[in-house]
Amino acid sequence: MEDCNMHSAASILASVKEQEARFERLTRALEQERRHVALQLERAQQPGMGSSGVGSGQPLSMAWQQLVLQPQEM
């Protein structure tokens, strides 16, 4: 019975560590995306930018989507 509990605890710990690592990756990607959007907003608010700023058809960086949509490794 004790071996089963040890295996279960180790399995839970491994799962928590993987979730923590995934959370860290998502946090970094979200911060990168926030900086990217803030920079685009700043550029769009500069005089003389016209239609070359936000909404000009240039794709936004979506690093966080790539992380979220990655298949889970189990």
How would you describe what is shown here?
The chain is an all-alpha fold and 74 residues long. The chain has a domain at 22-44 and 60-69. It is 69% helix and 0% strand. The chain is built from two helices and no strands. The protein has helices at residues 2-45, 63-69. Helix 1 runs antiparallel to helix 2. The chain is rod-shaped, with a radius of gyration of 21 Å. The relative contact order is 0.12. The model has no long low-confidence stretch (mean pLDDT 80).
Alpha plus pi helix count: 2
Strand content bin: under 5%
**Share of helical residues:** 55-70%
- Rg over alpha carbons: 21 Å
List keywords for this structure.
mainly alpha, 2 helices, 0% strand, rod-shaped
What is the compact description of this entry?
With about 70 residues, the protein is an all-alpha fold. The chain contains two helices and no strands.
Topology:
Elements: H1 2-45, H2 63-69
